[in-house]
Amino acid sequence: MVPDRLPTRLTQDSRTAAGTGPTSGTGGIGESTPRPDGTLKVTGEFAYSSDLWHEDMLWGHTVRSTVAHATLVSIDTAEALAIPGVHAVLTHDDLPAPVTHYGLEIRDTPALATGKVRHHGEPVALVAADHPETARRAAARIRVEYAELPLVTDEDSATAPGAPLVHEHRTDHHSGHVPHPNVVHRQPIVRGDVAAAAARAEVTVTGEYVFGMQDQAFLGPESGLAVPAEDGGVDLYVATQWLHSDLRQIAPVLGLPEEKVRMTLSGVGGAFGGREDLSMQIHACLLALRTGRPVKMVYNRFESFFGHVHRHPARLWYEHGATRDGRLTHMRCRIVLDGGAYASSSPAVVGNAASLSVGPYVVDHVDIEALALYTNNPPCGAMRGFGAVQACFAYEAQMDRLAARLGLDPVEFRRLNAMEQGSVMPTGQRIDSPAPVAELLRRVKARPLPPERQWLTAGEEPDVRALPGGLSNTTHGEGVVRGVGYAVGIKNVGFSEGFDDYSTARVRLDVLGGEPVAVVHTAMAEVGQGGVTVHAQIARTELGVTQVTIVPADTRVGSAGSTSASRQTYVTGGAVKHACEAVRERVLELGRRRFGTYHPAWATAGLLLEDGKVVTDAGEVLAALADVLAGEAVEVERVWRHRPTRPFDRRTGQGDGHVQYSFAAHRAVVEVDTELGLVKVVELAVAQDVGKALNPLSVLGQIHGGSIQGLGVAVMEEILVDPATAKVRNPSFTDYLIPTILDTPTMPADVLELADTHAPYGLRGVGEAPTLSATPAILAAIRDATGLELNRTPVRPEHLTAHLTGTAGAAGTAGTAGNGGCGRTR
Amino acid sequence: MDFLRPVGWEDALAAKAEHPEAVPIAGGTDIMVEINFDQRRPRCLLDLNRVSELYEWSVGPESVALGASVPYAHVMAHLRTELPGLALASHTVASPQIRNRGGVGGNLGTASPAGDAHPALLAAGAEVEVESVRGSRRIPIDAFYTGVKRNALEADELIKTVHIQKADGPQQFSKVGTRNAMVIAVCAFGLALHPTTRTVRTGIGSAAPTPVRAKDAETFLTAVLDEGGFWESRQPLPPSAARQFAALAAGACDPIDDVRGTAGYRRHAVGVMARRQLAWTWERYRADDGRGTRRTAEGAA
Predict the structure, then answer these.
(1) How many angstroms away from the CA of A462 is the closest CA of chain B?
(2) pLDDT tens for residues A241-288?
(3) Inter-chain contact B268–A805, Cβ cutoff 8 Å?
(4) What is the reported pLDDT for A459?
(5) Residues A506 and A559 in one domain
(6) Chain A residues inside the 8 Å CB shell of B279
(7) Nearest residue of A to residue B287, measured between CA atoms
(8) What is the pLDDT of residue B270?
(9) How confident is the model at residue B37 (pLDDT cuts 50, 70, 90)?
């Protein structure tokens, strides 16, 4: 039985697409083809994973720990099981296989807690019932007895003598080289002679910075449907970022071979890294296999805040030196990321934070250390920007302070030290494709500034919509000061450090109703990034067809890797291109066999597929595709890899660890109500090099969306964790605020296309770079307006007014309320 | 959960008398959130959506009789002249969808200190008309809020109409939130000048266990205006008076530290809003040249 509301095939016809879209043409690469699911999403008709339905299905519910660190003394499920309508209650003891843990990089996460719980909201037990309300009621009747343990909440408490160990018996591949068992992974990078370079520095700036815990805040909560199959396996329909990574983690815990766990991607309502880790996947499968009934699980918003990892909060110490003429001499930094209770992708985040910690600047002498802690705080892992975001916030603040000390314009100072093609990273890697850092900065700076005092109207009343506070009517211009700030960032594209980062694509060319149709099948998770348009565009360009059908992503085809690291267009796009090229070769072979004797060009000319025909490179039509195929379909599956990367040396951090780098620069213009501490971002101008915009509309969407996510963590977005209890204080959209359209500034964007010859079509990953520099640009603008140091993000009204109220808000104390850090110059 | 659906006001009163535990629901913008998040599971809901009387409003010589269910969007569109403070406050309520559903009756029923309407009602002066099968009474707004999310209603009573004094002078409302829409107040302040009675009234939101007036600030300002002959002269107010008014408004707060803001910030922000609103309203009063209240709303675009 197949469940209702499965993802339907997304058939895209470039001709109809062109009619509704912003451009017309063949619908190939470089055109702004509209999303096939765009209208459905806007009108509310798109079927998300939370809309899945199956006859006879049960509803799963998760019981989560109410404390952050405790021994699990007992779990009494009897009362819950006695409730009519309850079909199963599972705890760790019910797990069917010897493998009981999972994890992206380190298998340290129990499917259900055993022995102890390590963070607030950790899954402890599961319920399946015939109604979600019944499941929820039953869950409330499960009695869990906890014996609380001392908490580990920061570096001091994690590495103090006698500190409780979050994981007692580590055997993972990082456990041998970490300085303390509560350190997940540590990556130093040393290059040059820092001591000698520091001695040459004529100006030195040091600073300590704090980055708050950001949430991905995707709108579609974790959800899916597990359907038990007759062969003892299970079919899982789920919203995720990487089907095959899920599969690799799920199957062993279920005690099933991977081929008996068949996964299909359901409608995904955003991801941003938050769906890289498992959430309800194993749980729904366990309940389905136990009850023999389909089981649906949907988190509500509250549970979602506990259902996925967050962006690592960080403390960062930086020292930069420069000569009087504005050349950077050296950089020392130490980045401490809070990984929370489980490793998730912390090791890779550490590698990114370390290797990108110097930013897009040439610094020959560096001494870098980045590490992630195990604590009892909420687990942290992947989020858009992945370790590069936190570093960018800190090094860009340092650049402004250095420029100020040197009496140089902050943009000119950055341009003096900007990387370019051929520059060498702190890891020793030479950048072998365009790195237009100086040009991006020049472009955002060259833009005219938005007019001042836009709230003044012809009438006597100001337009408060143009003021900080907006319609909340807090100022009519009083206390409002404008500030302007700049920032630029560097992000890697693709998986790094020697990871075998490949994608698989299956492409079929067929003739239906006399017309050639390409069918593209990958396991790529479409999470909103626009891969579904890009794949169709590539197929049209490569195969000369108009009709392309994108088959729903599932595990019947090989892995497409993760929809993260700005990699899908590059890697799965590369695989689709590669497979299309193979299809074309087969088609041309067929053509030569069938028609080769009719025309010499079949043997001598370069041949292309265009407009449903085989044509020579001189434009002569040789045959229609329908005639060449003559009822035969051509199907090819290909795996494609980007150039290999290398691990970073454990001691020196040297190694060609990344495959490609991506750059964006922002200029933020803010208006700050300096008395109330309210900020309006008036404009957020951006320039980014994308190599080649396969779909310019999607590219712009990524740049705008990334910029706004950076704005969010500049002025409002933060998960607040009580340091005394390690409990989350604001798990709701009432108190975890994300920007609305009224908080969204105008965002003029300058998109450069400087080809990276190593990448398909010369493209460069787009999705993450704009998230990096938006935040420090806004902070710089607020500093410009207020003259305050502001070494913490997000910045809140009480931070901006602490000097007026005489409270500790901005005094440099640690913790969620403080302005953290005590940046100082010497 | 029982769901009672009275078709008229008398039916609703009878239902409430029979089921005093029933929770009234109109726009549902508070109750449904609590139900969806499983924070509250009333045994019985009393649906007031069919009670057409609650959607009526009328403008009398002294006051506006505002039905409990009249949505905020309606106040914004139609009562800007009569109720400028409440119209400004309505602008800050959540999103357009919520403003189309929610009404002042719900704010009063929930009696959260963060309800956006309260400071405007306190500043304008209002009476809450409540009724039960036993009869009807009017509760002065000053006596309505009795504790954190508690009000003066008896178990069998329903809110029918809010009688809000028509503006006889300039009014203002401001709300501090950390984003520009869909935000619960960190704190809020409302001010109304009442030239007819030579008084001023204020309202503070989200900075004390209940919505409160800054009575010392009102007394101070009333005295300054009176003793200085400012009502008649329409001269600019001395900055020292504005500062003192702001300090007294801040002093009327009894705030807490929570995830939305610190107590210290709330006190500070209420003071800033009070000082600014005094300037805005007094400028407007001065511009009125003695011919009475202007007929336009303040502030909002």
Answers:
(1) 7
(2) 999 999 999 999 999 999 999 999 999 999 999 999 999 999 999 999
(3) yes
(4) 78
(5) yes
(6) 478
(7) A460
(8) 98
(9) confident
Look at residue A699 and tell me if it is in a domain: yes
Distance CA A62, CA A85 (A): 16
Does a cis peptide bond (omega within 30 degrees of 0) precede residue A794?
yes
Within a domain: A197 = no
Task: Provide the 10 A C-beta neighbour count for residue A349.
Answer: 32
CB A583 within 8 A of CB A543: yes
Which structure tokens are listed for A217? 């805040």
| A473 closest CB neighbour out of B174, B178, B181 | B174
Q: Which residues of chain B does A729 touch, with a Cβ-Cβ cutoff of 8 Å?
A: 259
**In this complex, do A737 and B178 lie within 8 Å of one another by their Cβ atoms?**
yes
Ranges assigned E (strand) in A729-811: 749-752, 792-793
| Nearest CB to A737; choose among B172, B183, B262 | B183
How many angstroms separate the Cα of A762 from the Cα of each of A754, A755, B251? 8, 4, 64
Nearest residue in A to B274, CA atom: A474
Report the amino acid identity of residue A192.
Answer: G
3-state secondary structure of A673: strand
CA A739 to CA A748: how far, in whole Å? 18
Q: Provide the residue range defining the domain that includes A258.
A: 50-149+221-268+275-307
Last residue of a domain, one of A606, A641, A676: A641
Does A807 sit within 8 Å of B265, measured CB to CB? yes
Instruction: Indicate which CATH number applies to the domain containing A784.
Output: 3.30.365.10
CA A660/CA A758 separation, integer angstroms: 9
Q: Would you report the helix, strand and coil content of chain A in percent, each value rounded to 5? A: 30, 25, 45
Q: Domains along chain B?
A: 1-48 (3.30.43.10), 171-287 (3.30.390.50)
Dihedral of CA atoms A188, A189, A191, A195 in degrees, nearest 10, equals -40
Residues A517, A458 share a domain = no
Same domain, A490 and A508: no
- Residue B130 parent element (H or E): strand B126-132
Say if strands A480-493 and A547-551 run parallel, antiparallel, or are unpaired.
unpaired
DSSP at B37: T
Residues of chain A contacting B272 with CB distance shorter than 8 Å: 479, 675-676
Interface check A730 vs B, CB under 8 A: yes
**Residues, chain A, total?**
826
**Phi–psi pair at A184, nearest 5 degrees:** -65, -50
Number of domains in chain A: 3
B297's CB contacts (< 8 A; 6+ apart) are: B80, B81, B84, B87, B88
Give tens-digit pLDDT for B39-85.
888 999 999 999 999 999 999 999 999 999 999 999 999 999 999 99
Q: Is the pLDDT of residue A14 over 60?
A: no
A85 and chain B: CB distance < 8 Å anywhere? no
A220, A269 contact by CB (below 8 A): yes
Q: Does A454 touch chain B (CB under 8 A)?
A: no
Instruction: Answer whether B260 touches A (CB < 8 Å).
Output: yes
